[in-house]
Specification:
With about 325 residues, the protein is mainly alpha-helical. It is built from 13 helices and no strands. α6 packs across α8 and α10 runs parallel beside α13.
C-alpha cells in the first residue's frame, strides 16, 4: 500500500477512535470524563510520533471537528485541548527531543489547559469563578456550623471554627481553587506522559530515554517572568479588575508563573536533601512533596535562585555531576 494512503488510513483510524471515546463519554452521561482526560491525548500521540506535526495538524482538526457532533459544547473545548497536548507530545517524540524537556512542556501545557478551560467554560455557561468561590464558601460555612453543633459548644473548638471562618475569605478560597486546578493539571500532564510512553513502547515505536529532571537547565529569563506573574497574581487579589474575564485571565497567568517557580523550587529541595541529608528516594520524594504545603514561600524563593542563580550548578557539583558538560541555555 502506498505510504500516503497508509498515512491517511492511519489518521482516519485515530480520528475514529477519538470520536468513539467521546461518544462513549456522552452516552454514559459524562461518567468517565475524569478518566477520559488522561486517555484522549494518546491517539494523537501515536499519530504524531509516527508522522510529525505537519501531518498531525489535519488529524487534530478532524478530531476537533468530529467532537462537535459527538460531545457537548463544554466537552468540545476539553477534547480540542487534549488532542493538541497529544500532538505536541507526539511531535517531541518524532523529532527525538529531550524527554525531560518534553515532560516539563506537557505538564506546563496541562496547567495552562486546565486553567484556560476553567475560564472559558465558566464564561460559556454564563457563570464565573467568583460564583464558584461563593458556593464553596457557603458549603464550608455550613460544614463548620454542623461541626460546631456536633461538638456541643466546646470553647476551644468554637475558637478554632471562628479562626477558620475568618480565614475563609473570597481571596483565600479563590487561591485554593486556582492552585488546586494548577496542581491537578501538572499531575494530569505527568500521567499522560507516562501512559503515552508505555503504550508507544508496546506499539514498538522508538521512544528516547528520559534524562534526570535535575540535569535540565531552564533559561534564566523565565525566573524574572515568573516573578512578574507572581506580583500580578497578588495584585489581582489586592485590587481586583472590574471585568470578570480579565480578572480570571490575570489570575490564571499568575498561577502559571507561581507553579513554574515552585516546580523548580521542589527540585531544588530534593537536591538539597540528597546533598545534605539522605539519598533514599522515598524520603527525598516525601520531603519534596511536603515542602509545597509546609514552606511554599521558601520553595518559591529556591525556585527563583535555582532558575536565575547558581544554586542549580552548586547542587549538581555537590552531588558529583559533571557540570561543565551540561548545556548552559540560560540566555536562550
Amino acid at each position: 500500500m502506498d505510504k500516503k494512503t497508509i498515512k491517511i488510513t492511519y489518521g482516519a483510524m485515530i480520528v475514529a477512535l477519538f470520536g468513539v471515546l467521546l461518544l462513549i463519554n456522552r452516552q454514559t452521561g459524562g461518567m468517565f470524563q475524569g478518566i477520559l482526560m488522561y486517555i484522549l491525548p494518546i491517539p494523537m500521540v501515536a499519530y504524531a510520533a509516527r508522522y510529525g506535526w505537519k501531518t498531525s495538524i489535519a488529524a487534530w482538526a478532524a478530531a476537533t471537528f468530529i467532537s462537535i457532533f459527538v460531545s457537548t459544547p463544554t466537552t468540545i473545548i476539553y477534547a480540542a485541548c487534549e488532542a493538541f497536548l497529544g500532538m505536541v507530545l507526539g511531535t517531541c517524540i518524532y523529532h527525538k527531543k529531550d524527554m525531560t524537556k518534553s515532560l516539563l512542556l506537557i505538564m506546563f501545557l496541562c496547567v495552562i489547559s486546565e486553567l484556560f478551560n476553567a475560564v472559558i467554560i465558566t464564561a460559556v455557561s454564563g457563570q464565573s469563578l467568583s460564583m464558584y468561590v461563593r458556593e464553596m464558601q457557603e458549603a464550608m460555612n455550613e460544614s463548620m456550623e454542623m461541626m460546631s453543633k456536633y461538638m456541643g459548644g466546646d470553647p476551644r473548638m468554637e475558637s478554632q471554627i471562628t479562626l477558620m471562618r475568618s480565614m475563609m475569605s473570597d481571596a483565600f478560597i479563590a487561591r485554593i481553587l486556582l492552585v488546586s486546578m494548577a496542581v491537578g493539571g501538572a499531575i494530569q500532564g505527568f500521567i499522560i506522559y507516562e501512559v503515552s510512553l508505555l503504550i508507544l513502547r508496546r506499539l514498538h515505536i522508538a521512544v528516547p530515554k528520559p534524562k534526570p529532571v535535575a540535569l535540565y537547565t531552564p533559561p534564566s529569563w523565565t525566573a524574572y517572568l515568573g516573578i512578574a506573574l507572581f506580583m500580578l497574581y497578588n495584585y489581582t487579589f489586592a485590587r481586583p479588575f472590574e471585568n470578570e474575564i480579565v480578572q480570571s485571565v490575570m489570575q490564571v497567568a499568575g498561577i502559571v508563573g507561581v507553579m513554574y517557580l515552585m516546580c523548580f523550587g521542589v527540585i531544588a529541595v530534593t537536591l538539597l536533601v540528597q546533598a545534605y541529608m539522605t539519598r533514599v528516594k522515598l524520603v527525598v520524594g516525601i520531603i519534596g512533596f511536603l515542602s509545597i504545603f509546609m514552606m511554599p514561600q521558601l520553595v518559591l524563593i529556591l525556585g527563583v535562585f535555582y532558575v536565575a542563580g547558581q544554586l542549580h550548578r552548586f547542587l549538581l557539583k555537590k552531588l558529583g555531576y559533571e557540570v561543565q558538560e551540561l548545556p548552559d541555555n540560560r540566555i536562550s
